[in-house]
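Thread: "does anyone have the structure for this chain?"

Original post by V.I.:
We have the sequence but no experimental structure in hand. Need at least a predicted one for the grant figures.
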Amino acid sequence: MKIQSFNLNTHQKLWRFAYVICDFVTAWIAYTALYSYRKAVIEPARFGLEAMHWDNFYSLGASITSILWVFSIALIGLYINPIRKSRLTEIRLIVQIFFVFSSFYFLIFLLNDYVTDYTDYFKTAGIFSGIIFLGSIFNRMVMGYIIQRNILSKRYSFPTLLIGSRSELQKNLESLSLHSNWSGEIFSGWINTEEKENDDKGFLGDIPMVGELKNLSSCINNLNIRDCIVALAPESHHQLTKLILDLETSRVRTFMIPDTYGILSGQVKIDDHGVPLMEWHIDPMNPWQRNSKRLIDILISILALVIISPILIILSIMVRLTKGPVFFSQPRLGKNQRAFNIYKFRTMRINAEKDGPQLSSEKDTRITTIGKFLRKYRLDELPQFWNVFKGDMSIVGPRPERSFYAEKIIAQAPQYRHIYKVRPGITSWGMVRFGYASNVKEMISRMKYDLIYIENMSFFNDIKVLIYTVWTIIQGRGK
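Reply from O.Q.:
Generated one for you, C-alpha cells below.
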C-alpha cells in the first residue's frame, strides 16, 4: 500500500527557517531590552544624560548577539529535523545551551561594563537572559504545538514498514498503533522474517505483507518508507546485523522493539507516549559532537596548511625531482559511500598500477627513493588536510578505501559498511594499532579497530589517536 506522503524535505526547510528567524528575533529583542536598560538607567547615572540616545553600536551589537545565539542552537543540532523530534528533548537542550550561552555572554560582553552598583550586573544579565530564555521556550511551544496538530490531523504522515515475525509484531501491535497515532506513522505494510508464512493472504491485522527481507531495499523505495520498526523473535537475532546494515544504507529512521537483554542493557528509552522502543541511530555521534568535530577539523586543517606550507613546498620540489607529477589523486569512498578524490604526494613511479589495482608491500619496487622516505614518516598524507578542509575527510576516522577493495572486504565482512557512517580520516585507530594492510585479510583485521573507534567516538578518543599517530611518525613506522 503506497502512501502519498507530503514533501518532508520542503516542510523541514520551511520549519527550520521559521525556527531560525524566531530565534534571531528573540535574541534581537533581548539585546534591545538590555541596551535600553543601560541607556535609560545606567548611563544617565554615569554621564548625566537626560534622554536615552541610540548610537551606531546598537545594530552591530544586536546582530552579533542574534547570530551567536542562532549559531549556538545550530551547534547542538536543534535545527535538524524540526518536524521529527521529541519536544521534551528540545526543551531540555534549549535549557542547557541557554545556561552555557548566558554565562559566556556575561563574561565576555557584560562583565566589564560600567555599573553604579553590583546589582546592576544582575539586572542587566537578568533582563537579557530572561527574555532570550522565555522567548525561545515560547517559540518552541507554539511551533511544536502547530507541528503536532499537523501530525495528529495526518497532514504530516510518515509511511512505516514493520519488519519481524508475525508473533512478535502481533503481540506489540496495540502499543505500536498508539505510538503511530502520535508520531504520524502510517503502516504501509510488513515484511515477515520467518521462512514460512501460513496465512496465504499475509495480512497482519489490516496491514498487508509487501515482500521478503531480500527485497527490503526495493520495498522501502517503492512505498516511500520513512520509518521502519523491527521486532525479531529471539531465535532470529542472527538476522539483525545484515538487517541493520541494509536499513542504514536506506537511510530510514529505525526503531526496534526490545527484548529482555535490550531492556537490561539500559539502551531502551520510553518515548513521549509511554511506548518502549529503542531507536537505532545511524550517526554514532550526536549533533553537538558531530558539529564540534567538523569545526575543529576546519580550524586544524587551515592552521596546518598555513603552518606547514614551507614543508609542503620543499616536499613538492623533492617529489618533482623524481620526474613525474607532484601530487597523486585517487577515487576513494567516504561517508555514505560517496566517492571523492584523495590527495597525496606521489610516492610511486608513473603507471605503477598499469596491471590493475595493487596494494603496497614491505619491499615494493614501485616506490621511489623519495617515496620511501615520505611513507616512512607518513609525510605523503599531508596534502589530505585539503580533503579535510573540503569536508571529504576528517583528521581522525577510518582510512578510506577504493571501491575495488571495499567490495572485496564487504563480500567477506559485511559489517565493514558501518565505516560509511562517518567521514574517513587522515589517521585512524586501525592505522596506529595495526598499520598498513598488504592484502584483504589484513584490511579486515584492521577494520575491527576502526569499528571499535566508530562505536566509541569522542573528542578524547580522537586526542588519543593523534598522540599515537605522532609517536608512530617519530618512530618512522610507515611503509
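V.I.: this helps a lot. The CA atoms of residues 356 and 404 lie 10 Å apart.
O.Q.: and The first strand starts at residue 158 and ends at 164.
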